[in-house]
Every structure is written in structure tokens, then in C-alpha cells.
UniProtKB/TrEMBL annotation:
This is asparaginase. Keywords: Hydrolase. It comes from the Bacteria. Residues 3-183 form the L-asparaginase N-terminal domain. It comes from Candidatus Merdiplasma excrementigallinarum. The keyword rRNA processing does not apply.
Amino acid sequence: MKKILMISTGGTLASSRSDGGLSPRLHGNDILNWIAGLAEGCTVEEEELFMLDSSNMQPEEWEILAERIYRRREAFDGIVVIHGTDTLAYTASALSFALPGIEIPVVLTGSQVPIEDPIADATENCRAALHMAASGCAGVYVAFNRKIILGTRASKIRTRSYDAFASINYPCAARIDSGGLVWNPFVKQERKSGCRLENHFCKDVFLLKVFPGISPDIFPCLEKMGIRGVYVEGFGIGGIPSVRRNLADAIGRAVEGGMMVAVGSQCLYEGSDFSVYEVGRRVLSHGVIETGSMTSEAAVTKLMWALGKYDSPDQVRRAMAENLAGELGSIYDWLGS
């Protein structure tokens, strides 16, 4: 019998309706009662950590959750985390960096409709998560709509559909169909060992989406706020404005002042390459970090993690450039190989 730990943190799955709107009200043991019998061949133990709407899941909660998983991992074959969908991809990425070498599957799931609702997707998502947790495939994953997605590749792309999450620039790790859990042979599985807890995240990080007319004065303001790192979502394959309102040079001055600036694309798919256009090369010349095919969720959480772990800018740069948890590289790499 596989032994699975279910950690509940709240979210829509655990919510009930009230005059003030949906809010988490179901405890971990309530959720366990709803999904009893879904994981054949497994015993499931529940533990309630938070009861939060995922809009309120922040780096402080990531640190607590990562530590709880680290402390409890040796007693279980896998761990399922019940989580709200809105920030689930951020938490999945954060756990991927905070728990390097995790030896068991850690699977995050949630639902678009509360589990008490007759039309809820919650039961199927929990079923998939439990089976993935019992698979022995170590790592951090998201289970949703019968898809298993690598934690650093998940992104919520729909607000209402049950098919709310996509695997960005990388194939799904597995799927659930009539054959059970079917692993994707293109997704590399490496044996994990020697998990470490690296769960300190820098909170002084900012996400900036570039738009036509954006003022370069935003960077001096961010410096005054004490922001240490900024992830900039540029245009297309890689463009930052440098005429009339010269954001590129403002970024350069911020980098010279010690701020870590990473750049990527606003486009979900196909990644960035700031070397293609002059407007991209200009910002690269200022020493920014390019994130390539990383999701925004992975880029932001990785920058927070790297700044929390390292004091040296060079160490932060090296960490951001290293593929630590499957966040770098793309589907186009393996299609062409």
C-alpha cells in the first residue's frame, strides 16, 4: 500500500458559498471524506496547513509549505497539495526551486468549482493527483484536467474552463486516460536523491509588463522602494522601447546600481530571444538576464529564490542561467533533436 500525504491549503476546491462570496471553509478532513476511495491501493493521511484563497498565498506561505513537505517527505511515498488555482503555478515553481532533489512526487491540484458542487471538477483532479503521487516519479507537478504538468511549466491560461492549465513550451509529463497514468517518453525522468531545503525567497522583487508609453521613471521609483530584482516582460520575441521614453537605458542604469533585471516575453509560447532585434540587443548590452522559454511564474519565483539564496550578483546570474528544475529549454529543442 502506497502512503500518501494530502496537505490542504484552501482554494476553490475547499470553498463554500456565502453572502460575501466563495471562500475556503472546508477542512482537510472534510476534503478527505469527499475523495475517500479514489486512490485504490493507497492510504491517504490529511494535514491542514492553511485555509486561504490562493490570492493570499505569498512567499511566506511558500516557505512554510516547503518546510512542511521537507520534514514529512520521508514518511510518505508521495504528497498531494490542495491549492487554489489562481496562484497555483507560482507555488508549484517556488516548491520546485525550494526542494531540489526531492525524492518523491509532490503534486499540486485544485479545482475551478468547489468540491461540494455536483458539477465540480475537483474529484477528477484529486484522483489524478493521488495517482501521480503514488507513481514514484520524483519531482514537483501540477495535476489538472487529467494532465500532469511539470511544476515549473504550468500556467493558468483560462478563468472558467476545466482545462485551466497548460504546459508552456514543454510537453505534459503525463496524462490520465483509459490506460491509467501514461508517462510521456519525451519528458526526462532523473533519479532524485538528497533533497535539500532552500526555502528563503526575497520579497523585494517586481514584475513589470512593458506597454507602449511606459515611463522609464518607474525604475528610479523601484530603486527607492528597495526593490532588488525586476522581471520585465518585453514585447514579442524580445523588444524594449528605447525611443522617446528610453526604458532600455533606464534598465541599464538600474543594473549598474546593483539591481538584478531579468527579461522575457509577454507571449506565453515560443520564448524570447533578445538577440534578434536591435531593440532587444540594446537591453542585453546592459547586462540583463534573459529567461528564454521560462514561464512568468517560474521566472519571478526563480528570481526571488536566487536573490534569497545568494548575495553575489554573479551567483544570482549563474543560478538564473542554470536549468534547475526543468524551467529552461523548450519543446522546440526536443522536436529538433
